[in-house]
Amino acid sequence: MSLTETPGMKGQPLPQPPAIQRFFGSTVVSVAIYVIVIGMIVWGSFTGAQNMGYNWQWYRVPQYIYSFTDDGFQFGELLIGLGATLQLSITAFILASLLGLLVALLRLSGLVIGSAVAIGYLEFIRNIPLLVLLYLFYYVLGPIFGFDRYTASILTLAVFHSALISEILRAGINAVHKGQWEAAKSIGMSTGQTYRYIILPQSVRFMLPPMTGEVVHLVKSSAIVSVIAVAELTTFGRNIISDTYMSFEIWFTVAMVYMVVTLILSVGVSYLERRYAVDQ
Questions:
Q1: Which pTM was predicted?
Q2: pLDDT mean over 23-39
């Protein structure tokens, strides 16, 4: 092999990760470990509840998930809350992506003011806890600009995750070879055209896996808006508990719903990572 060749060139196989890394990185083992950990948590909680003399009422839980009436199948409160959570998360993610793209482009613009604004924004947002940011939008900015609970929640999630998304976008753009910029300039493309037709389409395969992972993170973060009584899954769960006192059953059910959603998204992330894997 010449000095300019690397593993994987001319049919050479790429180096394989160690056996222990392949073992723990497999989907089956990851799911097994996940199930074992969840099982241990459930067993510990069940044992603790039994020692407290807790009266389990699992038979009442299905009515809060679904029901059949004269009008047919009806969604229960928890499924309605799940729909509200997904709607909130999708709206916040779209806004966060647009805001993150703007921040990333400002940081890559080469302009002193643009870069300073982007860096200041990132440092400010990344160093504020999500709960504090939620209180800031609802209790401080809400009365000034007339934000209701739902608007404040979307803005909080969008602003917080836009800082993370902007770094993903910036890394994806920087991953495109500089020769692509030079080729675009050589044929007379403007900066905007270069981004639109050359850079962003090529950077998608670098950005898509971490971006889908950020969706999982945002769905889990959305539970925090329950502290200001926004109607979503966690809030519906708290309301049911206040009416029925079935703390263990409802929280376990809410946790399982979140787990199913995040597992589905995680499987999608794993597929995208394999589909858009980039050989180094």
A1: 0.79
A2: 70
